[in-house]
Amino acid sequence: MTSIMVLPLPRVDEKGLLSSSGSLPDWSDAKRKTPHYVEVLLAVDAGVARHYGHQRERIRAAMLTLMHAVNLYAFQLDIRLAIVDVLPVRGYNVTLEQFLDWRLTTEDLVPHDVAILIRHRYEGGIAYVNGVCKRTAVGIAGLLNRRNYCPSLQFFPEAPYEYASVFFHELSHFGFDRECSAQALIDLLPSIECLGEPRRLPRTILPLCGNGIVEEDEDCDCGPARRVFTIPMKELLPLVILR
Predict the structure, then answer these.
(1) Distance, CA of 243 to CA of 238 (rounded, Å)
(2) Rounded distance, CA 232 to CA 240, Å?
(3) In the chain, which end has fewer C-beta atoms inside a 10 angstrom radius, N or C?
(4) How many Å separate Cα 158 from the centre of its chain?
(5) Helix, strand, or coil here: 198?
(6) CA-closest candidate to residue 206, choices 90, 41, 35, 47
(7) What is the CATH number that goes with domain 4-211+228-242?
């Protein structure tokens, strides 16, 4: 029987997924091992597509902005993100079960480790726990405007870093059924076989400068620029995990 776990997203300490100061957390003290590669298939619902006038290049540009922000979290933990495709999903208010069905029935999808739907006007995130590299490796991430959160925010393009914190928190729970520390996530990664270094680096649809993967039109990629990122955080939204 399916049960639902609701996990709030408080501002936690340096061991958690968000910093108490509202800035990008500093995980430099975490004991990293070897890089692990996560091939991400991004999907957008009809609301997101409409927001960008159904223009593929505008949608991809927005996804690239988002993933640059997510990479600031992932790279610290030696997680290398590769965006293998960005696809539209028909319909509004797509549920997790419907998105899973889309993934299982859509033909010729590019091989990937996780598929995440960016849903318009959706609060928080939801995913099947322990689903990474399995048939249930799907999740939904969204950010809904509320006046007491950010009055000017209509959708994540106006605040990609706030959205990235929700996205990465949700992504990390593909391997966990509870809240975890940064070190716990690092320690878990070697046990997930599909996230090891591939024999051949994945074909990426959106080269992500700073992800540590040499992609199309890149001569090298050493990771994000070494500078301080100060990210203003508002009250964040709850994360819903399904199991």
Answers:
(1) 16
(2) 23
(3) N
(4) 17
(5) coil
(6) 41
(7) 3.40.390.10
Between CA 236 and CA 207 the distance in angstroms is 29
Angle at CA of residue 185, ends 114 and 69, nearest 5°: 60
Residues with a known catalytic role: 170
Domain chopping of the chain, boundaries:
4-211+228-242
The residue type found at 181 is S
Quote the tokens at residue 89. 């999903």
Does an H or E element contain 65, and which?
helix 56-74
Q: How deeply is 46 buried, as exposed, middle or buried, from its count of CB atoms within 10 A (0-12, 13-18, 19+)?
A: middle
Model confidence at 237: pLDDT above 80: no
Which letter does DSSP use for residue 199 in this model? Answer: S
CA distance 129 to 139: 9
Residue with tokens 């074909």: 203
How far is it, in rounded angstroms, from Cα 1 to Cα 48? 32
> E-strand spans in the chain?
4-7, 36-44, 79-88, 114-118, 124-128, 138-142, 239-242
* pTM to 2 decimal places: 0.77
Q: What is the pLDDT of residues 176-216, one digit of tens each?
A: 555 567 888 888 888 887 887 766 666 778 888 888 888 87
Mind listing the pLDDT tens digit for each residue in 31-52? 887 888 899 999 999 999 998 9
Instruction: Give the Cβ contact number of residue 57 at 10 Å.
Output: 8
Cα of 200 vs its chain's centroid, Å: 23
